[in-house]
Specification:
The chain is an alpha/beta fold and about 180 residues long. It is built from 8 helices and 7 strands. The chain has helices spanning about 5, 40-50, 65-85, 95-100, 110-115, 125-130, 150-160, 175-180, and strands spanning about 10-15, 20-25, 65, 85-90, 110, 140-145, 170. A 5-stranded parallel sheet has the order 3-7-6-4-5, sandwiched between helices. α4 (about 95-100) links the parallel β4 (about 85-90) and β5. The longest helix is centred in the middle third of the chain and has 19 residues, at about 65-85. The model is unreliable at about 1-55 (pLDDT under 50).
Length: about 180
């Protein structure tokens, strides 16, 4: 991955006054863009998460595509979390990950139920690691979430934002896109 691709700034700022987040980015890998909900299920999910997370909605979290995730995983493989600045989390259930295999060797499995029900991002580093089985991401790391099709990863992104993380990306294609050979 090019050094210029790695050097991008992304800030998602959620105001406590229930205003929408502002995403500011420059030099992001390929096209990081906002995707607006188009299906009824996505609209219902966004409505629910908007109520839960201080007015922030899924469309406020920047999304990446398969090529972007490939670049991120290559950077992770070459430099590790500390060197790349990325922490990639697959929020599918363990049985789903077992059925397809992981997205990559550097991808951590953290089911959505642990994120939302367990409020895991608000736990101490020790508690987080005991439950998640990997080191808790620092607030300055770029969190990248994936699931099967982008809905659960959007919810995980919102939960992380609510816990104080501001560098967040959602791989909206998810495992369905990742493992699709076409």
């Amino acid at each position: 991955m090019k050094a210029s691709t790695r050097r991008f700034a992304l800030a998602v700022i959620a105001a406590a006054t229930k205003s929408h987040a502002v995403a500011a980015f420059a030099g992001a890998p390929r096209a990081i863009r906002h995707q607006h909900p188009s299906s009824l299920m996505t609209q219902q999910t966004c409505a629910m998460t908007t109520r839960l997370y201080s007015g922030l909605s899924a469309s406020d979290i920047p999304t990446i595509d398969k090529g972007d995730l490939q670049d991120i995983l290559e950077s992770l493989q070459a430099s590790g979390r500390e060197g790349s600045g990325y922490c990639v989390m697959d929020v599918r259930n363990p049985d789903e990950v077992s059925a397809t295999g992981p997205l990559g060797p550097s991808v951590n499995n953290l089911p959505l139920s642990l994120i939302v029900n367990g409020n895991i991002f608000s736990k101490s580093e020790e508690e987080f690691e005991a439950v998640a089985q990997f080191t808790k991401p620092s607030l300055d790391e770029m969190l990248v979430f994936s699931c099967a099709a982008g809905k659960r990863s959007a919810m995980a992104s919102l939960a992380a934002a609510e816990a104080g993380y501001s560098n967040i990306l959602n791989y909206s294609g998810g495992a369905n896109d990742w493992f699709n050979k076409s």
